[in-house]
Amino acid sequence: MGATMRAQNPDNVQPSDRLLLRVGLLSLGVNVVLIALNAVLAWLSGSLALGAEMAHNSVDLLASVGVVLGLRIARRQSSAFPYGLYKVENIVALVIALLIFVTAYEIAQSALFSEPSPVMVDGWIVLGTVIALALPVGFSHYEMRIGRAANAPSLIADAVEFRAHALSSGAVLLGLAGQGVGWALDRWAALFIVAFILMAGWELLSNAMRALLDASLDDQTLQRIRKILAQEPLVAEVAELMGRNAGRFRFVQAILILRTRDLSRGDALRARLSALIRQTVPHVERVALQLRPQGAHNPKVAFAVDQGGQHLAECLCQAPQFVLFQRLDDHGSWRESERLQNPFLEQESGRGIALGRWLVALGADQVVTPVGLEGKGVGYVLAHADVSIVRGEPGADVENLLANMRQGLDDGLGKAL
Fold first, then answer.
1. Quick one: 254 and 313 in the same domain?
2. What are the pLDDT digits (tens) for 147-187?
3. What is the pLDDT of residue 385?
4. Burial tier of 39 (Cβ tally within 10 Å: 0-12, 13-18, 19+)
5. pLDDT above 70: residue 221
6. What are the residues whose beta carbons fall under 8 Å from the beta carbon of 224, sequence distance 6 or more?
7. Cα gap 241→210, rounded to integer Å
8. Where would I find the beta strands (DSSP E) of 210-346?
9. Torsion of CA 302, 308, 310, 311, to 10 degrees
10. In this structure, are residues 258 and 277 in contact, taking their beta carbons and an 8 Å threshold?
11. Are the C-beta atoms of 367 and 387 separated by less than 8 Å?
12. What are phi and psi of 60, to 5 degrees?
């Protein structure tokens, strides 16, 4: 993951590590250009706001260096850090947020307490300021798109910073326009910049702290993962589900209660569910699944019955209805728990698989069928969910079948008639 782009799910295509590093290096270059441009404009015009922009760019250059370093080392592992250095990107985002607050303080101090100076405004100054506005607008859009696609907090933080630059450059442009008509707006423009910088800094700080403090994945993502796990026929219950962010990656862990006491298929089940989650949910780096057998419970038996509901039907998939019996206690008491119409009786294709999934969802531990299910979709689904399949004579009385089965059911499921 990460070093390649996934093709299994169109919504889960992620940028490569090499592309992320290239974007980080481009951020360095853009900041160097903005520093040089704003320095020249501030020197030519004497504008306090343009000087503030140059100072802001200088701090951001250091932050961009941190972004590049964070992207390079985030995937490294060592004996001291066996789980990787994924949170380095969150630390970089936190540092950027703190630098933003320092920059805001320095700009505000200069705007409020420095001596006023004349500002020269001409066409070249205005053109340069427009370029200083357009460059971060274009690059921030590109960097934000890549950062969100990769869920990279350092790139997202850097893109937010460039957007703050665009807004503050717009304020500078308004200040210069005011100077051109004789309005002293330079200080107010600088303070306007401070307000935008503080808002951007607070957003980055809060997001970085959430990740560093192992805040949970959002509810929508957790529900999406829970649905994937619950759809597995062998899973009786998702007992516990947790997830967290670390850098641009997500980590998921869950406790699953299985419909079987036989955990020999556990490794294959873990691999299948982990692969499915990583293919479906973006940015998942690792899935840890703990499997537990289903505890003692009252078993449930499903009979495929005819229209009268008293005798075994001729065919499982074409049975008009199903009767479910459940054991009440350990003393051999049973009762009819449900009598349901076959919802797939009129379905032309995929009826067997749909019926099998329905019986599994009803909690059937054993299904009594008049015909063998070898090689059929319904048989595959039931066997995959560890549901026992028992053959019975078509037309046999259901009560008599249950009476003959009780001893075997009380001793343990899976015994045939």
1. no
2. 888 878 778 878 877 877 776 676 666 666 666 555 656 66
3. 81
4. middle
5. yes
6. 280, 281
7. 19
8. 235-246, 249-258, 284-293, 300-305, 321-327, 334-341
9. -80
10. no
11. yes
12. -65, -25
Q: pTM of the prediction? A: 0.54
Q: The domain spanning residue 235 has which CATH number? A: 3.30.70.1350
Provide the domain limits for residue 329.
Answer: 300-411
3-state DSSP: the chain helix, strand, coil percent, rounded to 5?
A: 55, 15, 30
Instruction: Output the DSSP codes for 190-228.
Output: HHHHHHHHHHHHHHHHHHHHHHHTTPBPPHHHHHHHHHH
* 40 vs 50: CA distance, rounded Å: 9
In this structure, the answer to whether residues 235 and 373 fall within a common structural domain is no
46-55, 269-278, 284-293, 408-417, range with the lowest pLDDT: 408-417
Residue at a domain's end among 271, 293, 315? 293
Task: Show the tokens assigned to 211.
Answer: 């990740």
Q: Are 156 and 147 in contact (CB under 8 A)?
A: yes
Q: Where are the beta strands (DSSP E) in 247-401?
A: 249-258, 284-293, 300-305, 321-327, 334-341, 366-369, 388-391
Residue whose token pair is 């700080």? 205
Distance CA 411, CA 417 (A): 13
